[in-house]
Structure formats: C-alpha cells, structure tokens
Amino acid sequence: MKKTITLGHGSGGRLMHQLIEDLRLQLSNKILDELADAAEFKIGNRKLALSTDSYVVKPLFFPGGDIGKLAVCGTVNDLAMKGAKPIYLSLAFIIEDGFELAQFKKIVNSIKQAARQAQVLVVTGDIKVVEKGAADGIFINTAGIGVIDYPASLGVKAKLGDFIVINGGIAEHGMAILNARENLEFSSTGIKSDCRHLNFSVQRCLKASKKISMMRDLTRGGLATVLNEIAQGSNLGIEVDQQAIPIKKSVSKMCDVLGFDPLYVANEGKFICFVNQKDAPKVIKVLGKQARIVGRVTSSHKREVYLTTKIGAQRILPMLESDQLPRIC
Asked: Which of 117, 148, 179 is the last residue of a domain?
C-alpha cells in the first residue's frame, strides 16, 4: 500500500480507481456511488446532469488544441455521456506568478471559441494566483450542468448482448501530447489531438436508437481501461476484436516505435456506445465512416475483457496498472 500520492494515481488506471474507491467510501451517497463522470439528479420534474473536471495538461499548447479547448470539451463530453445537453459552464483558473498575459489571453480566446462551437455559456468563474513555483503555469477547472431529455436515462452498466460501437480512431490525443512534450521527430506524420466536443454526436445517436444502454468517453487509461471498468461494474464479460479497432497508421507507427500500447493511450474526442445488436448499424450510420463495431458484451468470463488479436488468438486485456503518460488532460 503506497503511503504517498504518485503520478500513477492520476493515470486513470488501477491506482486511481483504488484512490477513488477510498474517497467514495468516505462520502458515499446514492448519486456518488454510481461513479459516473457526471451526476444525474432531479429538480422538480426536470432531469439534470452535473460534472466537474480539472485540467493540468503539459504542454499547454499542442497540435489539435490547448488547455483552454480541453477544459471546455472535457466537461461538455462528461455531461454528454449521460445523455445530457450541456448548457452552462463554470470556469476557474489557478495561475502561477509570472505567467505571460499574452498566453493567458490566447487560452481565454480558445475557451471562447470552444464554448461557442459546443453551444454552451460560461456563466461564472474564479481566478487565483499563486507564488512562482507553486503551479506549472496555469491549471483550469470547469464544471458544467446540462439537461437530460432522453426518456430512459443512460446508465453505468452494459446489457448482455450489447454491441460496442466506437466513433473513430484511438490514441491520437496521447501521442500528440507526447510528441509536443518531448519534441520528438514525428512532426511530419501530422499526428494531432482529437480534442473536440461530443454532445452533438451523442444526441444523433440517441435520436437514432432508443436501445442504448450506456456511453463512455475514452480519456485517461484509454479504451482498455474503460472496458475493464464497464465489465467490472456490469458484472459481465466483454469481448473485443483488435482487428476492428480503428487506429491511424501514423499513430500506430509512433506507438510501435516508442513502445506504447494504443489501447491504453488517452483520447479526448472518442467514445464508445453500448447498444442493442439490431440498432448498432443505426448508430454507425449517424456517427459516420470512421465508426466501427469493436466488440460485444457476453455472459462468459464475467468482469473480464478478452481481446481477439490480429492473428486470431485470445488473451485477457487487463486494466492499466499505472501511467503510461501523466498529465495528458
């Protein structure tokens, strides 16, 4: 048992889940115990969703986005995964003494553009400035609230027989961050973050099918870790076909060269949808040509994820133990 908090506790893997479970036990209540990315509750007859997230990405600017865009899209996406239409955001900054005002203005402009594209309003906020060395430039927290109009609430458990649909290629965000952070020689490959808002894509899915069990965005820990969370939380097994998982050639090559497993690399614009087998083609159609069916939910090997490899063998796909790459969001 570790006696201190490490970077691994923020990775999205097993260490983080242990830390969250300890926290949940201390603060346990009906809503929190779902351990969803957004809380669902009612005020009067209206169903609402609430989410909060903090952003400490390094570097602050990267191909495909920056910390400002990430702070909007990340919280919007957590609300969207509950079937909510995001409407309002709060915005809080922790800024290190000496941070360049020009960079701050650039980040704020990025927030403005991302909020406009996602059709949400920033309605309240806060700024704190700390001593030089007490923060790494700038950290951002956003909280968001959304309304849920979907008749049957999206849950946190998959259903037996569900097909798993992904909306596009994985590992782009994590590899773009690593490339920018370490000044690697992969600039010619055009690898950039998939950071974007997913609320409109989710709404299209919900209109196409009334048989969607749940959705999850694939952030820290990547596809493999999220699938393990769902298998364990649903007390069911999951089978995934490696050959069906979309990965851009440039991303796959970079992962191979650097020894990263793309199944565990973070994303910021990808999600999985658990949907009844008959409705899976409807979801594929509204998500577009990059969407794929990558797996299914089964009653065998409960609480475990099995991967069928490219050569046809099967192996257990475990949860991420620690961090492959810290501070990616």
From this structure: 148
Contact call for residues 139 and 40 (beta carbons, < 8 A) = no
- What average pLDDT does this structure show over 61-85? 97
Q: Is residue 324 a part of any domain in this protein?
A: no
pLDDT at position 22 is 79
Mark whether 209 and 303 lie in a shared domain: yes
pTM of the model: 0.94
CA nearest to 325, candidates 280, 274, 262:
262
Cβ count near 294 (within 10 Å) = 22
Range scoring the smallest mean pLDDT among 6-15, 135-144, 300-309: 6-15
Contacts of 26 (CB under 8 A, 6+ apart): none
Conformational region of residue 122, where left means phi above 0, alpha means psi within -120 to 50, and beta covers everything else: beta
Q: What is the pLDDT of residue 322?
A: 67
- Per-residue b/e over 202-231, b at no fewer than 16 CB within 10 Å? bbebbebbebbbbbbbbbbbbbbbbbbbbb
Of 115, 148, 181, the position where a domain reaches its end is 148
Strand partners, 271: 217
Angle (deg, nearest 10), helices 172-182 and 249-258: 60
Give yes or no for a contact between 235 and 25, defined as CB atoms under 8 angstroms apart.
Answer: no
Residues 142 and 132: their CA atoms lie apart, in Å, by: 23
Report whether 67 contacts 329 (CB < 8 A).
Answer: no
How many CA atoms does the CB half-sphere of 147 hold within 13 Å?
Answer: 7
- CA distances to 35, 38, 142, 170 from 48, rounded to whole Å, are 16, 10, 17, 30
Q: Which domain holds residue 220?
A: 163-316
Asked whether the predicted pLDDT for residue 153 surpasses 90, the reply is no
Write out the two tokens for 203.
Answer: 């709404």
